[in-house]
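call fold(seq) -> tokens
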Amino acid sequence: MTEIIMYAIAVLALISIVWLFYVAAMSLKDKWGTLPIEAKVLGGAWVIVGYLLDVCLNIIMSPIFLEPPFELTLSSRLKRHREKSSGYRLRIADYICENLLNPFEKAHC
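ret:
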């Protein structure tokens, strides 16, 4: 039982961290053309870290979707489920996209 609780806490923590990286990356994307080179270098490095965390999150979220990760990132998995799935996978993908991702980049997934 404690393993399940620890897994849930770890997943929630990673979701929060990846989401913070995503929000920061979307902010950088919006302002990219006006940023000085220093901000682009520092921001770009953090975007890479966020991308790697997204890959990790996609793997960790596999039990929630009851399938192995076929895509590299969670965003790609969510897009696939929104386009081709039904049932609980579609509901999970819709919820994450509409409440956490799309408010910061329209039609992200």
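The mean pLDDT is 93.
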